[in-house]
């Protein structure tokens, strides 16, 4: 089975990649100017205080020793304690990861129908007014940075219409519905940011497929247009768009920082940034490894889906 | 599996995941409504603040790295005495105090019946332990390491001279007179903690005598939740049942949140957002007095700044008025090149007598006298980061003025988070900021020879003697005269440029009252905060 073979070699490579990533990050934090003792103790700490702090956290030992210790912990499933708060990394990261995951999933579910519908409309009515309108819209979307988009949506729907909250206090949500309502603005912002790429991609692919012989055959046979698109053209046009989607997924987990900041969303992006500034190696490592893992898995997923969606690849030797 | 089934299954899986995450997440923090009886809807106040400390946050008064930290510590603890915005000392946990004739022994009489959150009564033991822990945590029996400036600010206290004379009486026996001791011990680290409390516990428990108790405290919560302490010692206070603190880093988000009514109060509104909020009938803007300072600093022992003529040049090549009007949009006051701004009643000269500048002619003359000219221009590098509003703007005004008198003035911008750590105290010419302080600490914090923060490398034994003499002078007028001499000295010879102070602008919904922004950003009083619902 080709799928199993792909999976096996890719997982192996993924582990090697993650190992390399962890080492690079550890070294990078070490090399960055400024140290954790100064960050934690603040502007007013004396040299003695800082030295004492480093001794207590074991930071006076060589970097490789500390890395080795940390790695052996990770292999056993223990990511260690935050150097700053001394809480277990799992305790610090998991609630934030859950929030970000929730937001990402929400955005992703909005993104799929959004890009498929608009992409198909663009392709079917290509070079018409609908297409021109949508193309202009996606071009504008492409050129607006997420934080501007987020602020704009927050202003329109939060301040003027007062329909959705601009501060996403997800921890205070009392029900599933309330959580979805709270997260609507950041989720839509993210969905738009992802969809603008996918719409253009899908449009181009779909046009190509729609002009192929078997589609023309279907049309000549008298199959209704919606059926032509849904049953014959779309599945084949989806395959190349999958890779864009995989990249988008990775972006969702790792790159939502800006959107998180705009809506004060307590997610992993904010945690990552704060931890980098604090030089809190264990927390940075945990966040970065999660992001890397998502990236790797998303790409793997896209490849496997491509194989499964393309009957020709399924039977390849 | 066919293609169609595959796509269908994927969609189903996604939806199931979304549902599972939300539902499964509930025990992690959702739906933990306060455990009070649902008799009346509790009054929950939503307060947005800036400057989050992240993982670094702690409820231990000894460790306060950020503004977020100050806010929270202020809610859960009390000090012996409180300070007004004019630095008058008013009783808090101490009902009254007195000193002997030469101010070498101070006696504080504690309020009776004050309870800590854990239910035990405040006694002199708690107070003695608190001060000893600030002076020397290890010796007091707590092996916590905290970055507090408390030990150096309280260095005038004698560790063994802090005595519990009676259950409700604390004595401070000193080696030398301290005329303003009640003021001098009311600093941001001297919030009273229970005797024997360790930093490791305090950092999450926040066990003080203050009006609010932290709920399940975690450093990076959003929001941080605080509930009313039912046995709080001040009758009828606090007014709110719960306070929820939201860290909103983005200024635009803070403005939108108060406009839309999601927040009841916002601690700091950026100057740029003031105009849009001023015309909003649902929002009230609250302005503090002159709070945090902005200053350029020069090392007085390092060329070219070791020449007082050069130092004076940099103090006169810009317009002080322009800094306030342009960089702070009018929300601030000018400074007089020393830590005490001239609007303070105890400043050495009133605002009207401060030269506003620029005075290019004198500057060119001084430069020429110091040996610089068109063939031999003075070259300097000035370090800045947008720590507080107006920093970069101020640097640019200095640069314009420098160009006018023929100085090659390079601005080097540093990232905000790295500034105090990697730049501050490490380069001879840069920007800094200080919170508002009364004369005794304002003049010594970075100008005394043994200062922890020798910003300008200003170290003159005669200056230290002057401050020491002032701190031991019992007559207020005489003491003020000595402090004024010190201020004038720094203005005329020091390495401080400008030192004007900007206002803190807060915002409240118009149905909410009871919050007054303090000149000290580390002071945060929410006892009377309330909203009509």
**Silhouette of chain A:** globular
- Overall SS class of chain A: mainly alpha
Oligomeric organization of the protein chains: heterodimer
Low-pLDDT runs of chain B = 25-38
What order do the helices and strands of chain A follow?
HHHHHHHHHHHHHH
Structural class by helix and strand composition of chain B: alpha+beta
**Structure annotation, total helices of chain B:** 17
Overall strand count of chain A: 0
Low-confidence stretches of chain A: none
The radius of gyration over CA of chain B amounts to 26 Å
Keywords:
heterodimer; A: 317 residues; mainly alpha; 14 helices; B: 533 residues; alpha+beta; 9-stranded mixed β-sheet; 4-stranded antiparallel β-sheet; 31% helix; globular
Q: Which helices and strands, and how do they pair?
A:
The complex is a heterodimer of chains A (317) and B (533).
Chain A: H1 2-31, H2 36-41, H3 47-56, H4 63-75, H5 89-124, H6 129-143, H7 146-160, H8 176-210, H9 213-221, H10 225-254, H11 257-262, H12 268-278, H13 281-309, H14 311-314
Helix pairs in contact in A: 1-13, 5-6, 5-8, 5-10, 5-13, 6-8, 7-8, 8-10, 9-10, 10-13, 12-13
Chain B: H1 3-25, E1 44-49, H2 67-76, E2 81-83, E3 89-91, E4 94-99, E5 105-110, H3 124-135, H4 137-140, H5 150-153, E6 162-166, E7 169-173, H6 181-184, H7 199-205, E8 212-214, E9 224-228, E10 242-247, H8 251-259, E11 265-266, H9 271-278, E12 283-298, H10 308-316, H11 320-327, E13 332-333, H12 360-369, E14 379-384, H13 391-404, E15 408-413, H14 416-423, E16 429-432, H15 439-442, H16 461-472, H17 476-493, E17 496-509, E18 512-513, E19 530-531
Parallel strand pairs in B: 1-10, 1-11, 14-15
Antiparallel strand pairs in B: 2-3, 4-5, 5-7, 6-7, 8-9, 9-10, 11-17, 12-16, 12-17, 13-17, 18-19
